[in-house]
Amino acid sequence: MITMNRLLRTLSLILLGLFTVSAWANQVNSARLSATAEKTRLVFELSQKPNFTTSRLSSPDRIVIDIKNTTLKTKLEGLAKQTKLIERIRTSQPAGKGQLRVVLDMAYPSSYKAFKLGPSGKVGHRLVVDVSPSSSKAAKAQVVKPGRDIVIAIDAGHGGKDPGSIGPSGIYEKNIVLPIAKQLKAKIDATKGFRAVLIRSGDYFVSLNQRSEQARQADADLLVSIHADAFSSPQPRGASVWVLSLGRANNEMGRWLEKDDKLSELRGIGEVISESSQGDEDLQRTIVDLARQNNMAESHTLAGHILSEFNGFTKLHKKQPQAASLAVLKSPDLVSLLVEVGFISNPKEEKMLRSSAHQNRLANALQKTITNYFKSNPPRDSWLAQTRTHKVSSGESLSVIARRYGVTLTALKQANHLKNNTIRIGQNLVIPRV
């Protein structure tokens, strides 16, 4: 017969064992490195929230990261090949039992910041280390790879169990918008300096919340959601472009601010919030509000450009960008648009929308507008921001400009999507990288 004391001792041993397993259970599952002109970023993905400290050692210069109760389940060899700022990334003898010590052997004097990010979608806990050059010599060695592509997330509305609206012929909205999305992706992928990702690539359902979340996970610069409108009567027709309403934006901003552990996930501003606000709610609100205002302004401007391009070949239902409380556009940190390409409930327009030729025209218009907008407003770390531009003056020819910059005529035409050698005075040309 088991006595109460023996039972308590047994339970204590079991609990101690569980605690010990839990305390030592954290592990680094993967590590990745990226480099831009401003910094080199090292990201560790962990199974649990990291408990870490950092320090600096000299002679030689090293950055030391100690992560408590953690084991390494990935390889670090080869990571430093992507930047000349760091000679080597390795493990070393830890300061305490069960501790993981990662050492960055520095090639140049550099400053650094380390912070943690919470789970986001399919990505778990992360420990991020940003290293920035502290001398002009280090800055010149910083970037090995060229600037990044601008990423466009394309969301074909509805899908799977959600067919969307149904046209007079019985066609589903989901089956009209997906081919347009695929054509748009192909055209964007074929544009130098751009890359597109599809939120859904087939006939399956993606929740509204996951659509913006997938765009964030893809580090998208823009989310464009493609839909076909419908009404109870067949008369209405024409395209429209929608942006997030101020009321919905304010509500979403409030929800983010209520979740301190989620603020660090906001694209482009999460790091600023993590490092600067230190729990100051007023400062957090200011940072998020400024980002929201900027993204709403960009969304509205781009929406107007799309409507102007559409007006050249299709009817407009609304000639100005419209604002609404749309869940797919809810992210305060992402430029987002919803494009209604026409009314599927209008028999004539449904016939047009089913036409591959009209779908191609819509995709062409979206690709042209989106890429031209970002060529004029490229993100600082993008390849486009690192390219040169030239404004055509009177008397200049394409061949003369090509010789001036030491590029081939073919490369210059490809960079600017020119079918012939015709250029106009005042035209801005992208000068490709040699």
What does the model show?
- The structure is a single chain.
- With 434 residues, this protein is α/β, with parallel strands linked by helices.
- The protein has 12 helices and 17 strands.
- Strands 11-10-12-15-13-14 form a 6-stranded mixed beta sheet, with helices on both faces. A 5-stranded mixed beta sheet has the order 5-1-2-9-8.
- The longest helix is centred in the last third of the chain and has 30 residues.
- The poorly predicted ranges are 10-23, 256-265, 275-279
Strand order across the biggest sheet? 11-10-12-15-13-14
Q: Into which percent range does the helicity of residues fall?
A: 25-40%
Task: List the total number of helices.
Answer: 12
Instruction: Report strand %.
Output: 15-25%
Question: Which outline best applies?
Answer: globular
Give me the Rg, rounded.
26 Å
Compute the number of strand runs.
Answer: 17
Element-by-element helix/strand order: HEEEEEEEEEHEHEHEEHHHEEHHHEHHE
Largest sheet: 6 strands, mixed
Briefly note the structural class of the backbone.
alpha/beta
Query: What's the rounded overall pLDDT mean?
Result: 82
How many angstroms separate the termini?
Answer: 84 Å
Features:
434 residues, alpha/beta, six-stranded mixed sheet, five-stranded mixed sheet, 12 helices, 17 strands, 35% helix, 25% strand
